[in-house]
């Protein structure tokens, strides 16, 4: 067995608290923020089994600033406590909260193809999340959430990076793109607005973390779960997919409105941030 398989097998054994595990296959799904996520096939007590293994490593980007173990615990508790029947989260089949290398084993879902209705269903699930009262959660989850640094101002920081690079590589970009230059400068010189609302927020609520499964959707990746402005999440849902049509944006907002109020002004700010981000990114790509 390769050292990689031995490493993965060790994590699954710890998650399931048994040595009766033999890994047959482990294919990376994604690797981001220092987490490895793998589609695993293995035998458990001699019987075939599958699962999705998420491994937190020392290189993890701890945006919430609560540490590896508490971030992993927050994911486990979220899966157990936030599934509302409308908001679905993959089942945790086992976990290990070792301080330096925690890991979580999730059920493997058979996903469907995403379509225009997927995002609308996600808007309903998002409204459900934002309506959950923090006081209804366990003490451990409530504390992990309260101590998590909110992932605010994230897209604005991305917008601010591009003009600096463009100014160095091609200073004439401002003359050629005056409107884009003005939008970038405006976002630089104003603070991110906040609505008066303060709710649970997912922190990374976009298409890669929204899994359609038959007539349901499942939400994954709860690392950034915190308290904050729900317009961050709604802005991500309608902003992160570059070529989303206005009618699709309107459908999402209409669905979300059925379950929660929202702040038009703050949401418009986030949408503008995303549009400016993509325009600047496209411009930079043309000169690289």
Folded structure, characterized:
With 288 residues, this protein is of the alpha+beta class. The chain has 2 domains: 3-114, 2-Layer Sandwich (Phosphorylase Kinase, domain 1), CATH 3.30.200.20; 118-287, Aminoglycoside phosphotransferase (APH), C-terminal lobe (Aminoglycoside 3'-phosphotransferase, Chain: A, domain 2, Alpha-Beta Complex), CATH 3.90.1200. Helices cover 45% and strands 19% of the residues. It is built from 10 helices and 9 strands. It has helices at residues 3-16, 68-81, 116-131, 139-147, 154-169, 173-176, 178-189, 230-239, 246-257, 264-287; strands at residues 21-32, 35-44, 47-56, 92-96, 103-106, 199-201, 210-213, 216-219, 226-228. The strands form 3 sheets. The protein has a 5-stranded antiparallel beta sheet with strand order 1-2-3-5-4. It has a two-stranded antiparallel ribbon with strand order 6-9. It has a two-stranded antiparallel sheet with strand order 7-8. The chain is globular.
Helix-strand blueprint:
Layout: H1 3-16, E1 21-32, E2 35-44, E3 47-56, H2 68-81, E4 92-96, E5 103-106, H3 116-131, H4 139-147, H5 154-169, H6 173-176, H7 178-189, E6 199-201, E7 210-213, E8 216-219, E9 226-228, H8 230-239, H9 246-257, H10 264-287
Antiparallel strand pairs: 1-2, 2-3, 3-5, 4-5, 6-9, 7-8
């Amino acid at each position: 067995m390769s050292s990689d398989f031995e490493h993965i097998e060790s994590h699954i054994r710890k998650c399931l608290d048994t040595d009766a595990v033999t890994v047959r296959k482990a294919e990376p799904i994604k690797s981001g923020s220092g987490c490895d996520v793998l589609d695993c096939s293995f035998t458990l007590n001699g019987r075939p089994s599958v699962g999705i293994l998420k491994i937190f490593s020392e290189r993890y980007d701890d945006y919430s600033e609560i540490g590896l173990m508490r971030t992993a615990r927050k994911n486990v508790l979220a899966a157990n406590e936030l599934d509302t029947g409308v908001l679905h989260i993959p089942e945790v089949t086992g976990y290990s909260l070792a301080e330096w290398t925690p890991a979580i084993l999730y059920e493997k879902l058979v996903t469907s193809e995403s379509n225009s209705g997927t995002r609308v269903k996600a808007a309903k699930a998002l409204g459900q999340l934002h309506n959950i009262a923090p006081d209804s959660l366990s003490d451990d989850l409530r504390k992990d959430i309260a101590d998590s640094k909110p992932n605010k101002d994230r897209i604005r920081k991305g917008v601010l990076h591009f003009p600096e690079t463009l100014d160095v590589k091609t200073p004439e970009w401002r003359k050629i793109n005056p409107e884009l230059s003005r939008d970038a400068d405006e976002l630089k010189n104003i603070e991110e607005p906040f609505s008066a609302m303060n709710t649970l927020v997912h922190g990374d609520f976009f298409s890669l973390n929204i899994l359609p499964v038959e007539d349901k959707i499942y939400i994954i990746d709860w690392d950034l779960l915190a308290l904050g402005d729900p317009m961050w999440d709604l802005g991500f849902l309608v902003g992160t997919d570059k070529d989303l049509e206005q009618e699709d944006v309107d459908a999402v907002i209409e669905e979300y409105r059925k379950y929660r109020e929202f702040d038009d002004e703050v949401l418009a700010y986030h949408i503008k941030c995303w549009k400016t981000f993509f325009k600047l990114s496209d411009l930079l790509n043309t000169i690289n």
